[in-house]
TrEMBL record, chain A:
InterPro entries in UniProt: AKP_thiolase_beta, Cys_Synth/Cystath_Beta-Synth, TrpB-like_PALP, TrpB-like_PALP_sf
Residue ranges the record marks as coiled coil: none
Cofactor(s) required for function per UniProt: pyridoxal 5'-phosphate
Keyword vocabulary terms for this entry: Lyase, Pyridoxal phosphate
Name of the protein in its database record: PLP-dependent lyase/thiolase
Lineage top rank: taxon: Bacteria
Gene Ontology MF terms in the entry: lyase activity
SUPFAM superfamilies tied to this protein: Tryptophan synthase beta subunit-like PLP-dependent enzymes
Xref: CDD domains: Trp-synth-beta_II
Tryptophan synthase beta chain-like PALP domain span: 57-365
């Protein structure tokens, strides 16, 4: 009988992962913390053409790029003269399971199938579970979705419960856990037991699956208005959406398009806290993922994370919960598109940023997601009220306190962003290297790797190291 | 209520007791066990809520736990009308009224 204790299972992590992902990550190791990222993406990923073919087989992609005409009128009305960029949204809710996550899941399911796995597994409380279950079902594979779902009183957020329902509708086994990072432990236990494929969000093929999203945005933008977008705003959680979309844009040639990451500000709410769990109205797309995954990407469930947002991000902005609910209501009410709130994080940011940008500029919101019972602002605000959260009108940027209130802007001009300096993220990245690996000195090869990972020069890396360590 | 073999049920079991949990948890989480819920088809001939039972999950795994619900229902819903949200729509519509194409 194998030792199934927490420590024993965690210590078998690498062995379990190797079997369940089918990628030999040692091939890409260079020295110390350095590895060859582009080689891994080339070798273990797929070309854009290959991915498009895989996705076409299961009805993924080719989603419309929609101008938000009424929202754009509203923006013009409240912006200073000459300002007010036009917003277009990539309507990813039209994918089979209703989000861009189908792009990611499609490649994993394809890969699992050709490699002879009987099923796929993913640890997620978000749309990715539904996407994996849906793509698995299309490929004739079984699926298990492991979710962090309830607090210790057995109470679950409506949004997560809805996603569990969706996974079950696609035929998945849904394993629902109470709060805690040991979700990953149990995920390993099940991988070991079943021998299923780990449809991790962070493999090279998972990220390559999102490249078509950036590729399509660039192509559609060029066809519709003769230029690439001036900016693309991307909801940033684990980093895969941002990394994949940015890589796709660059592969087409949209190298000057500004890549803006946006997360919901949930500062002060601990991700592993049983008490805080139901005080969050956002289960993804928030700073609890956005910041740690940007500053230490290799915290993921594979040895080397292919989602490395700091390689691509030009700007990082935070929005508040109230703004996202407000924008979700706006999108439904004046634009006729009822879409899930988490995906509208980037739309809230785009709305604020458009007011600062020139009126001839184009800003693309890279995704929407499906919505329904549990995922609507009405469901989530009802739940928030029941959990003692105050809902009020005001100035969200000034008054927002995550876990205490949700502040809806009393006027659309109050939709704003908090600009989070990339410098701060880069400094945290260096600190994480010390914390995780005890590293304070780095070889030339390691410095070069850090420089690539942070998209700055090695000189700047040396300066940062001096400042931080 | 008695569940019969083949019924769709939910089971409950403890994955890790508090003392078996990861070491880096916040205090409130460390005090409680890691709990697990899974749905599947009942394998026992008969069982009532609270009995230890075996189920077969949709992927064909056999799992043991305490019978918690029989034909578990989705209880999440669209929520109550939120007066604040109703006002958002009203204000925005008034702002762009007559402007739509």
């Amino acid at each position: 009988m194998r030792d199934m204790s927490y420590d024993a299972v965690m210590s078998r992590k690498n062995e379990i992962m190797k079997k369940s992902v089918g990628v030999d990550y040692t091939k890409y190791e260079v020295e110390g913390i350095a590895f060859d990222y582009e080689e891994m993406m080339k070798d273990a990923g797929y070309t854009i053409d290959e991915i498009r073919k895989i996705q076409l087989e299961t009805g993924v992609g080719n989603t419309p790029l929609v101008e938000l005409k009424n929202i754009n009128k509203l923006i013009k009305k409240i912006s200073p003269k000459g300002k007010g960029a036009r917003i277009f949204v990539k309507d990813e809710a039209t994918n089979p399971s209703g989000s861009f996550k189908d792009r990611r899941a499609s490649v994993s399911a394809y890969r699992a199938k050709i490699q002879g796995y009987k099923g796929v597994m993913a640890a997620t409380s978000g749309n990715y579970g539904a996407a994996v279950a849906s793509q698995a079902s299309k490929r004739g594979l079984r699926s298990i979705i492991v979710q962090e779902c309830f607090d210790s009183k057995g109470v679950g957020q409506p949004e997560i419960l809805e996603k569990a329902r969706a996974c079950e509708a696609y035929g998945a086994e849904v394993v629902q856990l109470s709060v805690g990072p040991e979700l990953f432990y149990y995920f390993l236990v099940l991988l070991e037991e079943t021998g299923y494929f780990n449809a991790s969000l962070y493999t090279p093929f998972g990220i390559a699956g999102v490249e078509t999203l950036g590729y399509e945005i660039a192509e559609q933008s060029m066809n519709q208005f003769g230029k690439y977008p001036d900016a693309v705003v991307i909801t940033h959680a684990g980093g895969g959406n941002l990394t994949g979309t940015a890589r796709g844009l660059k592969k087409v040639g949209a190298v000057n398009t500004k890549i803006i990451g946006a997360s919901v500000d949930l500062h002060g709410l601990h991700m592993a806290s049983d008490n805080d769990f139901n005080k969050k109205s956002f289960t993804t797309g928030h700073t609890g993922f956005g910041i740690p995954f940007a500053t230490f990407p290799d915290r993921s469930d594979v040895p080397r994370n292919a989602a490395r947002p700091l390689r691509y991000m030009d700007e990082y902005v935070l929005v508040t919960q109230g703004e996202v609910f407000y924008i979700t209501e706006m999108l439904a009410n004046i634009e006729g598109m009822q879409r899930g709130p988490a995906g509208n994080t980037s739309l809230a940011a785009a709305f604020a940023l458009a007011m600062e940008m020139d009126e001839d500029q184009i800003i693309v919101v890279n995704e929407t997601e499906y919505t329904g019972a549990g995922k609507l602002p009405s469901a989530q605000l009802t739940f928030a009220k029941e959990n003692g959260i105050e809902i009020k009108f005001g100035d969200p940027i000034k008054e927002d306190i995550p876990g205490k209130n949700i502040v809806l802007p009393d006027h659309p001009s109050k939709v704003g962003v908090i600009k989070y300096p990339l410098e701060k993220l880069r400094k945290s990245y260096i600190k994480e290297l010390k914390k995780r690996y005890g590293k304070t000195e780095f070889s030339e090869k390691e410095l070069k790797f850090i420089a690539e990972d942070l998209r700055i020069s090695t000189e700047e890396v040396k300066k940062l190291i001096e400042e931080v360590l | 209520m008695i569940a019969k073999k083949g019924d769709w049920v939910q089971i409950y079991f403890i994955g890790l007791n508090p003392e078996q949990r990861a070491s880096n948890l916040p205090e409130d989480t460390r005090r409680v066990p890691l709990e697990i819920r899974i749905k599947g088809f009942l394998l026992n001939d008969e069982a009532k809520i609270g009995d230890t039972v075996k189920i077969e999950t949709p992927v064909g795994r056999e799992v043991e736990g305490k019978l918690e619900e029989i034909y578990p229902e989705y209880k999440h819903n669209f929520g109550k009308p939120v007066i604040e949200l109703l006002q958002v729509g009203k204000q925005l519509r008034e702002m762009i009224e007559g402007d739509q194409e």
